[in-house]
Structures are given as C-alpha cells and as structure tokens.
C-alpha cells in the first residue's frame, strides 16, 4: 500500500437510479433543470460516454462493487444474491483503513426486497441505512444499522437520505482515517408521478421537447412520464447540491473524491420502446452520467473525457486514485491516469452486455456491445444487430450494418468487441446457456427472478454462490 491511511482521500459516491446520461442541463438537455449538477460538472471531469455494463439495477451494482463483469460473477439478473465470498469495494477500502457507510437502495441481497439484511451480508459496509429495493419515495422504508425493525424516512427520500449523509460527514470530517460513503438515491426511477408537486409544476408536459427517435405512438406517454422524471431529477439535483455544499462547508473538498453517476438509463419511448424499459444497448438505456471531482483537479476541472468508461472500470480507478493495490482478479481497467491527465482524443472500447434479458425485455435477444467515443456496435448470438456513428447520428436512427463503404470500420469494431470478450473469457451464447450454467430459474409468468414470493415466506435465494464454476 502506498502512503498512510491518514492522507488517503475520502470517497463520496453518489449513485442515482435510472438517470439517463442525456437528462441533465450540462449534457445539453433543453428542458431539465439541474443547476447544482451543472455547477458540479464545471468543477469535475465529465466522462460523457460512460455506459452501464448491463443497463439494469443488480448487474450494474454488482459490477460497481466488484470491478468484475457480469459473466464472471454470474450477477447478470435483478434480485439475485451477491455472494459474501466476492471481494468488494467496501472491503478493499476498509482493509486500507477506511470507515465505510451506505445509504438507500442496495439490490444485491436476493432475499426479497423488504427483508432485513444482516451485517455479514452488507459486503463490508459498516454504517448502514439501507433497504434492498423500494421506489416509494414519499414513505421510503429502510433499516437503521443493527435494528431489524423496518423504519421509514419521514420526507421525500432523496432529501431524507442526503440529510442523514450530511450528519455522517459532519461526524467523521475530522477523523484520523478516511471514509467511503456510498449514497444510493433511487430517483429518478419510476414511479414518476410521485415526484413532489412543486417540481412537477416546473414541467408542463406540452412544453417538453421530445427526442427525434421517440416514435409517434409514445409521444403523449413520454411527455407525461418526462414531467415526473424531470421533476424527480430536479428535486434530486437539489438534494445533491445540499450534500456538495456540506462537503465544502466541512472543508473536505481538498481531500475527497466525489462521483456522481447512475446505474442505467431508460428508453422513454425511443426506438418504439415504451418508457421505463432498460437493459438495451441504445444510449437511452446504456449511457449514464459520470462526473468525478478529485483532490488537486485544478486546471482539469470542467474538462470532458470522450473515451468511454464501463462499470467495472470504476472500482480499479478509485483504488488507483487512492493509491490502494488493485486485486489481480479485478477485470475493469484502472483509468486513474486518464482521470489525472484527461485526453479528449483518447479512445477505448467499453463493453456493454445483456446475458439473459428478463421481465419486460424477455423477448429481446441477448447481446454483447461496445461503445467507443464514436461508435456503438452490438452482436447477438445470431450476428451483428447495431452499428451507429454516435457523432453523426446522436439519436442512433441510422443503422450502418452492412454498408459497403463502412465494412472496414464494422470489421474493426467486431475485432475490438471480440478482443474485449476474450479478455474476460466470454463468448456470445444464448440465454439458456447462462441460465443453466448458473442454475437460475425465472418465474413462468413474469419471466424474472421471483422476489415477490418472499412476502409470503416462500422466497428462494438464487445466487452464483451455489455454483461450482
């Protein structure tokens, strides 16, 4: 380990839910009001092509905490259990002398969505005000550390969670050892209608502009959903702003790495896919915000990195910035040098995948895709399906597959994709192969892992833990 724990940076990781990379003022969105994050973008580095490795909750969170790809851990579905044997972010930072804290939505426990999660299943987080999964923002349940009785936040959950996090930062601002604080806010994920009225009133549906790739059948529905979506975003921006103000007030800025990101986006009617749906390789679902501010950012504040980043890259990059040894089995790339020396011209291939589409996406084909700073390219078990030039065609309306004058570019992207897959020992196979390999079973009607039977005491844990790979 380099350096002593006393000079290691604190880390505040703000993880939101279903916040699309395009749905922010600083990203050029003409409608949504996000003044606090817009200001933070000017003080941070902006990875404008960050993607979610599998654009849905549990797989993203598992990849974020382990630095490994879903095909390696088996964590490619919602509502499965991340085994205790996995070495995670909190455990690695704890070993380096950090205090660890977690708030909000967890979605890695696989024991139903409202059951108490005992300390041994919290993956190294000590301070704990969290719940497996709820989107009841006006009466959000949670568990308070070792109290196994369900509690409820007393106000709109982004404000309540941030208020508690502010108190934690205040209590630990002068500690000898640094802290890792992961603040997992479940907005702007649906239900969109539950956003506070004050914020919904800012967004009359008729006034909202629609992306040109939203199909006619979804125009009315998308405007209605965007009203609440943007309202949640603006309210959450306000909560995050108060958190950033507290960090500054406590004089923690010069020794704290702050990240703002999301686990995935949502389609919102683009390409004829109804609102709420994700899991897909199109930018609406896969591209997420990723702002990072670090000590001594100085002249790099406000710079943009065009090279994509995918979820498993985040943990090794944070470890790199904190001068903590990176375990050999972490698969993501340590991008700390790029973060400290941002080069807008650098490019790389960031992997996106959906190994076993489920729920609303059950009829979709599984895929592997890459995002470069210019292109998106995707392949299913039946062959290539997507090839977009995101610079010329930002709404991905012109599929370039098979165009004679671009065959060399397509072939090069195919080589890059398979090179990324080879690195992690993955090939593009049908869903049934992975379901069998990891011994997973869907509910016959909902085509998803059954989390609702836990309410009746009939839940069954499905986890990679039981598989000998």
Automatic annotation (TrEMBL):
Domain of life (superkingdom): Bacteria
> What keywords appear on the UniProt entry?
Hydrolase
Which GO molecular function entries does the Swiss-Prot or TrEMBL record give?
arylsulfatase activity
UniProt domain Sulfatase N-terminal: residue ranges = 9-324
Q: Name the InterPro entries on file.
A: Alkaline_phosphatase_core_sf, Sulfatase, Sulfatase_N
CDD domains to which the protein is assigned, alphabetical: sulfatase_like (cd16034)
Give a Pfam family name: Sulfatase
Q: Which family does it belong to?
A: Belongs to the sulfatase family.
Q: What protein does this entry describe?
A: Putative sulfatase
Q: Which organism is it from?
A: Nonlabens tegetincola
